[in-house]
């Protein structure tokens, strides 16, 4: 079954240095944030290379650009503790998207379209 977050996942998969990607979404029923309806998230790994570094830099810029334009989007790193992973091989990056006012379809679509637009217009200037 396809979900709204699939569009965002597919826009991130365009980058060759994105090695693994997992994603999901859920409907929030949080009393403190009742305006949030559906949130989605992606977790991905980046190739340890110059291309990977540039990819992460580019994805960070696109997320920050969207955040500055009012989208509810967050990019952050995470990793399990050293005793539960292989040091040097466990860093993952997360993108969380928090739509509001029952507009999750529109928000996910806008974010996916902006990633694709930036990829097509600017990515060639950033590759090695």
Task: Tell me what you see in this structure.
There is one protein chain. With 128 residues, the chain is α+β, with helices and mostly antiparallel strands. The chain has one domain: Gyrase A, domain 2 (2-Layer Sandwich). It has helices spanning 5-12, 50-68, 104-122; strands spanning 18-27, 38-46, 73-78, 92-97. The N and C termini lie far apart (37 Å). The model has no long low-confidence stretch (mean pLDDT 86).
Task: Report the portion of residues in β strands.
Answer: 15-25%
Give the N-to-C terminal Cα separation.
Answer: 37 Å
CATH class: Alpha Beta
* Unreliable residue stretches: none
CATH topology grouping: Gyrase A, domain 2
Q: What does the oligomeric state look like here? A: single chain
What strand order characterises the main sheet?
A: 1-2-4-3
Rg over CA atoms, rounded to whole Å, is 15 Å
Please tell me the overall pLDDT.
86
The structural class is alpha+beta
Instruction: Report the count of strand segments.
Output: 4
Number of domains: 1
Summarize the structure.
By secondary structure, the protein is an alpha+beta fold.
Please give the structural blueprint.
Elements: H1 5-12, E1 18-27, E2 38-46, H2 50-68, E3 73-78, E4 92-97, H3 104-122
Helix pairs in contact: 1-3, 2-3
């Amino acid at each position: 079954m396809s979900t709204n977050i699939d569009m965002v996942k597919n826009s991130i998969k365009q980058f060759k240095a994105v090695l693994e990607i997992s994603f999901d979404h859920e409907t929030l029923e949080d009393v403190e944030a009742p305006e949030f309806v559906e949130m989605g998230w992606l977790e991905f790994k980046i190739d340890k290379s110059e291309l990977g570094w540039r990819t992460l830099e580019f994805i960070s810029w696109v997320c920050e650009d969207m955040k500055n334009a009012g989208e509810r989007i967050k990019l952050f790193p995470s990793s399990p503790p050293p005793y539960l992973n292989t040091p040097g091989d466990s860093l993952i990056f997360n993108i969380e998207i928090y739509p509001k006012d029952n507009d999750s379809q529109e928000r996910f679509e806008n974010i996916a379209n902006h990633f694709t637009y930036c990829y097509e217009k600017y990515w060639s200037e950033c590759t090695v």
